[in-house]
Amino acid sequence: MHRRGSNLLKGVVGLWLFSAGLMIPGMPTCVIAADEVMIIELDGPINPGTAMYVTRGLKKAREEGTALAILRLDTPGGLASSMRTIVKAILNSPVPVCVFVGPKGAGAASAGVMVTVSAHVAAMAPGTNIGAAHPVTAGGKDIEKTMSEKVVNDMASYGRGIAEDKGRNGEWVERAIRESVSITADEALKIHVIDLIAKDTDDLLDKLDGREVSLPSGKVVLKTKHLKKTYYHPGFRDRVLRTISDPNIAYILMMIGLAGLYFELAHPGAIFPGVIGAISLILAFFSFQTLPVNYAGLLLIALGLIFFIAEVKVTSYGILSIGGLISMTIGSIMLFEDLRVSLKLMMPTVLLVGGFFVVVATLAYRAYRAKPKLGVEGLLGEVGTVKEQIDPEGLVFVHGEYWRARAKEKLEPGERVEVENVEGLVLRVRRARSEEL
Question: Catalytic: which of 88, 150, 190, 313?
């Protein structure tokens, strides 16, 4: 009985010590011992498409309980909003995330700097570089002075705060943002911008083994040797979104969509332009949900389309068409808030689509004003030949058909007659003007 009570007391004490150990700052809370590492590759610009791809990859790593997620990075930079999305996902990930700038020759420029320093472990391959994080517009141009100061100060404090929170060189990160400095992997390791250098993924896993990292839930020790590597590949949706997240492509899709639907409305039954237009517009709207769209610009483009349609019904002597081109041009410039459609792409597109609208509107107007070719209306004013004497009724050949006809005067076979009216299936005719002369 005494021995049993002693064992029970030891068990309670041991449990209490273990629980206390979990709460002591600086002590590892657990050892990560899952048998898989998920590798997510981010190769190319950081945009809404790649941001969604990375966040979904980290979510899948969490759901599958992987021991580690490696974000293999090679980027020239990208959108600040998309970069913040990735950084937020990394900082709040319950799965340890290692950002590995690799393979050799890769780089983490601009927004890639913030992604790298936000990781639980930051690593680089030999022959890579990091830096040049000064904010610029989407077109690569410097921001205007007043706005530049605000943006640079905000980004500098953001980057420095993240770096210092991870125990990295926040002063250098601020310099990379303010002065666009860039360094090699060896220099980055030397001044504590990154944690280690690895030749490849296998070497990285060996060097990560036994390393302690801090997660939102507490500190953990990585056990990464002999982990099974799994790759998170972009799906069809990721590839499509990555492509159409380019504002230039989204803009072209929208213009093709508007042109196709306009042609279908102006010439009902063409079908093909309407189908292409509808698909293009849907893809454009899908990309707009990931891009910072200025709806005033979108409304101006729609207003331009309305002006072109109105040109068919209203004789404005080209004023509506000119207004449509101006509205479409201004709307194209204003379309994206933080981005700018390339002028080399925008101007030819506006002129081409605007010219297309003008041509279609002109053809539609001519068709609207043209004399009907079929039916009763198509017979009025037509000239035919008398085939059987009309006195007061006879037979005429008009518009490729034989008709019964009446006239106020006697008409002989062979005379030319003009249709004045249609009364049921009988034509009211008169001698043609050329015959009167």
Answer: 150
Question: Considering 207, 237, 267, which residue would you say is the last residue of a domain?
Answer: 237
Same domain, 35 and 182: yes
Name the most confidently modeled range: 37-51, 86-100, 388-402, 412-426: 86-100
Domain end marker among 322, 349, 366? 366
pTM of structure: 0.63
pLDDT at 11 over 50: no
Is 1 part of any domain? no
From the candidates 82, 93, 110, 118, give the one annotated as an active-site residue: 110
Which of 301-310, 359-368, 376-385 holds the top average pLDDT? 301-310
pLDDT tens-digit series, residues 291-325? 667 778 888 888 888 887 777 677 676 788 788 88
Q: What is the pLDDT of residue 337?
A: 61
190 catalytic residue (yes or no): no
> Are both 191 and 272 inside the same structural domain?
no
Model confidence at 222, in pLDDT bands (50, 70, 90)?
very high
Does residue 14 lie in a domain region? no
pLDDT at 204 over 90: yes
**Residue 394: domain span:** 375-436
Same domain, 384 and 340: no
Do residue 317 and residue 407 come from a single domain? Answer: no
Is 110 catalytic? The answer is yes
Question: Quick one: three-class SS letters along the chain?
Answer: CHHHHHHHHHHHHHHHHHHHHHHCCCCCCEEECCCEEEEEEEECCECHHHHHHHHHHHHHHHHHCCCEEEEEEEECCECHHHHHHHHHHHHCCCCCEEEEECCCCCEEECHHHHHHHCCCEEEECCCCEEECCCCCCCCCCCCCHHHHHHHHHHHHHHHHHHHHHCCCCHHHHHHHHHHCCEEEHHHHHHCCCCCEECCCHHHHHHHHCCCEEEECCEEEEECCCCCEEEEECCCHHHHHHHHHCCHHHHHHHHHHHHHHHHHHHHCCCCCHHHHHHHHHHHHHHHHHCCCCECHHHHHHHHHHHHHHHHHHHCCCCCHHHHHHHHHHHHHHHHCECCCCCCHHHHHHHHHHHHHHHHHHHHHHHHHHHCCCCCHHHHHCCCEEEEEECECCEEEEEECCEEEEEECCCCECCCCEEEEEEEECCEEEEEECHHHHC
Name, of 207-211, 341-345, 419-423, the range with top average pLDDT.
Answer: 207-211
